[in-house]
Amino acid sequence: MKKTLMLLLCSFLAGHLLLIFSWHEFSIFRYIYSLGALFIGIYYFKTYESKGLRISFILVSLVFWVLLTVVYVMIGKIPILNLEPPGLKLE
User: Fold this and answer.
1) Which among 9, 32, 10 is positioned nearest to 81, based on CA atoms?
2) Is 83 helix (H, G, I), strand (E, B) or coil?
3) What is the DSSP string of 46-80?
4) Residues 8-66: tens digit of each pLDDT
5) At the top level of its lineage, which domain of life is listed (predicted)?
6) Of 72, 70, 76, whose CA–CA distance to 89 is shortest?
7) What is the DSSP letter of 32?
8) Does the pLDDT at position 90 exceed 60?
9) pLDDT for the residue numbered 11
């Protein structure tokens, strides 16, 4: 039970940080989000050494990234950061 909850929590955080990284304009904060996802992955890989858990971490993180992308595009922005999807502004 604890392993499943940690898998979901770490995958959700990594997927969310990767989504913000992919939406953010070029700035230093973009790379901070990327490093955050990397550090979450390193923490998870140090904590759980099973190949199955590591593969599922990567796959579930990608699933969260895609699901959150769809949800936030439907909403039109990431509510907390007020960050709009790229390509939404027509200039």
Assistant:
1) 32
2) strand
3) HH---HHHHHHHHHHHHHHHHHHHHHHHHHTSBTT
4) 999 999 999 999 888 887 778 888 989 999 999 999 999 998 999 999 999 999 999 99
5) Bacteria
6) 76
7) H
8) no
9) 96
